[in-house]
Amino acid sequence: MKMTLTSEITQGKSFFLEVSSEMDMGELPVTFYRRFQDELSSLLSFIDCAGNELEVLIEKGPRTGIIVNGYRNFSSFYGLKLGGWLKISYVGSNQFIINEALDHNMKVKDFSYPPFKVSLDVKPTVGSDHVIDITDNSSHVRDTSYKTHTPSSNQLLPARFAKRAFPRKFDFVNVVQPSGHSIRMKLRWRDIRPNKVFLIKGWRRFSKNHKLVEGSVLRFSASSIDETTMSINILTPMATSFTMLKDLDASSDQQNWRLKVRVIKKWSISAAEDKYRRPMLEMIVMDQMGHRIQCSIRSPHRRFFENDITEGRLYSLTNFSLAANDKKY
């Protein structure tokens, strides 16, 4: 069965979504988002003409909608390893029809049969993956609201995630942090509910080191091969709105900013005081108002970002420090 939509229905509701296998997050077209942002929820469903369904989670900003989870499923499911585009039509009720999948050479890709569904809590390359709001003790993936509760010394893991990630119920787990370093945390299992488990010893230090605040959202991932290790990544920025570059203040004590910028230029530079150190990654970024600023990513963090940053693309930046540029290069 082929789905067709009349031009009257699709007027203003059809768009092309760029797909990249190198990016964890994508962006809905600005023109479409501004028109329909009031009726869109955070969880969206994309269905192609073969009946395959993929779900994504978006973070709604004042001017743009960022796909913060499920974006890579587009490239892996449709075989767009080198990137491509999806021709999409919005049909209402947070549902979208994928009319065509085009590769980087603009060739149409065939849809797979029988119908298949990719949900948010499972990725093709990850054994177990789940998204929760750290300010909420439920595992409901759609709950991404910002609560008033401050994270404590323990964190409840989603029941579905815990059941699949730790079938043998170990007492400790090695947690890989966003920086790449691991920290050993203790697991506390509840006897009444066998799948109810808390991260206790080590969680307070993790929260403090990463400045977790109200509304912070984390992604918990665990490989099916090694159940003694899991990773925690900050899925969405901690601030709830974008900051303009002109509003940044290096003298401010509160530096919990979030930027949406385009990378204009990037290059490497060696530290003058130590010729044996790995070079830093330098960038010039620009916001939507045209203001520019220079950024630096130092080792060892550089290796986690340098392959994902491309000139000309949009990025959301957070958890950075701000200082006056007093060096001459």
Automatic annotation (TrEMBL):
PROSITE patterns: B3. It comes from the Eukaryota. It is found in: Nucleus. Signal peptide: none annotated. InterPro entries: B3_DNA-bd (IPR003340), DNA-bd_pseudobarrel_sf (IPR015300), NA-bd_OB-fold (IPR012340), Plant_B3_domain (IPR050655), RFA1B/D_OB_1st (IPR003871). The keyword Transcription regulation applies. Residues 140-238 form the TF-B3 domain. This is TF-B3 domain-containing protein. It comes from Arachis hypogaea.
